[in-house]
Design a protein that fits this description.
Radius of gyration: 23 Å
Helix content: 10-25%
CATH topology of the largest domain: Immunoglobulin-like
Structural class: alpha+beta
Number of helices: 1
CATH architecture of the largest domain: Sandwich
Order of helices and strands: HEEEEEEEE
Strand content: over 45%
Length: 148
Amino acid sequence: MVDVSGKTKAIVLTAVILAALLATLVGLQYIRTISSSGRIKSIGCEVYWDAALTNPVSSVNWGTLAPGENKDIATYIKNTGNAPAKLTLGVQNFVPAIAANYINLYWNYNNSTIPEGIGIPVVFTIDISPTITGITSFSFDIVVIASG
């Protein structure tokens, strides 16, 4: 029988614990990240990536997100109507539908009136609940409505 010193046992035990911890962390990171995308629909307005209002937004790729994470996307929204308007934000068509229970979308729009033909900067923020489970990818539609 081989006699193993206490120091050797401690080193082996530490290595096993570190390996298990690393495997757990890598596993959690892999399992718990969520890929995402969304289409933007606009009524009475147009959404752009740039202040010059030349590069329209048709979809947003939020990238890979983790539970508890939030992410901002900067855009510009132009009132294309013929009268001053205010904006309304909506979200619809979550896939999978249960994702709506764990994902919120906000913006920094302050309910100001936007003159016709004018674009304003607006930041959309997606917020993923820290309790989200069972969802590895999702999509939804962002609806922006300008009305006077």
